[in-house]
Structure formats: structure tokens, C-alpha cells
């Protein structure tokens, strides 16, 4: 079954990266539903390295503030929720549970390049699933890589094996703060069929 035009509009054609937010909170129940969907998205060897912190409180936002680039500061402080998409650099310790039919842990343990590549690739994918799942649940999103990762890691992941990958503001967007949609490539510029 192909999704309706209305669903495709909501997920892609009319969905935008938001810079302003309505004063409308996001229920914790919606965030739980969101993560349940995200965790069903595919990752290599089901490695599921993504770890997610939903920064909702003023106290949490103040911990985030010093790490934000100037252009991302005001909108992030105003967003009802900022998701930190992190990656567990010891994701492979969970593979006996997540990929029980093979010794997948041994593919990674001691192989720093495979660990770094797999953590980054798959947590980034999971962040992408989060953007689309949020849109499917009626939320708006604003992804950001303009922040000081070392500061976020110190403030939120000290003493853990998790590192930050990127941030996603979540809430109900204020359409008056949108920039005009930037152009996209045509098929031939970005893709080919061989
Ligand atoms: C991983 C990622 C990082 C981004 N970083 C920033 C950022 O730091 N600041 C910002 O204002 N926008 C950021 N953006 C938003 C993009 O510029 C935006 O998604 C793109 O221009 C397309 O806009 P549209 O979704 O409204 O069509 C980021 C988007 C992604 C996916």
C-alpha cells in the first residue's frame, strides 16, 4: 500500500525544518511513542547505537545553553523539547541480546574504526528515523549540528560511553518563522539508475 498524498505531504512535501515554536508542550507519552517507533527502524546488525535525551526542563535547557552556536541558541531555548541524539560507543556489548543468532560482538570489540563508523552511521540513521517518526506523530522538527559536542558530552554524558551526534528541536512549529524552502536537486543531479 502506498501512503496517501496527505501522509506524504506531512512526512516530506510540506514538512519543514522549524526555527520558531508555539507555546504548546509535548506530552511525555508522545516522546515514548516516538522512541518506540524510532527503535523499530533498521540498523546494521540491529546494533541500535542511538541513545536519546529529551531536554524538556528549564534546568536541562540551561545545561545545553553554553554548548549552542549563536544561530541555534534562541530557537533551542524556546523549543518545548530538544532531543540529543547520542551514540553509545560500546553499543557492541549489547549485541548478544540484540543480535543473538551470531557472535556479532566479536566483529567490533577492539576494532576502533568499525566501532566509530557503525556508531556514527547508525545513530545518524536513527536520528533521521526520529525526524520522520516525529512528523508522523504530528510534531515539527529542527535538526542542528551547530553545537559544541564536547560541552554536551560533559553536561549530559559524563562518566558514560555515550557521545553526542546531533540535536533535534521538537514541538509544534510557528510557520511565520520559516525561511523560504531551499531548492532541491532534480533526479538526474542526485541519482542515476544503472
Ligand atoms: C544533521 C542536520 C544538521 C543541521 N544543522 C543545523 C544547524 O545547526 N542550524 C540550523 O539552523 N539548521 C540546521 N539544519 C537544518 C537544515 O539547514 C535544513 O534541514 C535544510 O536547509 C532543509 O530545510 P527544510 O527541511 O526546511 O527544507 C540541520 C539539518 C540537519 C539534517
Automatic annotation (TrEMBL):
Q: Per its UniProt record, what Pfam families does this chain match?
A: Nitroreductase
Name any one GO molecular function.
3-hydroxypropionate dehydrogenase (NADP+) activity
Q: Which family does it belong to?
A: Belongs to the nitroreductase family. HadB/RutE subfamily.
Q: Domain of life, per the record? A: Bacteria
Q: Which UniProt keywords apply?
A: Flavoprotein, FMN, NAD, NADP, Oxidoreductase
Where in this chain does the record put each Nitroreductase domain? 22-156
InterPro entries given in the database record: Nitroreductase, Nitroreductase-like, Nitroreductase_HadB/RutE, RutE-like
Q: Which cofactor does it need?
A: FMN
Its Enzyme Commission number? 1.-.-.-
Protein's organism: Paraburkholderia dipogonis
UniProt name for this protein? Putative NADH dehydrogenase/NAD(P)H nitroreductase PQR57_20585
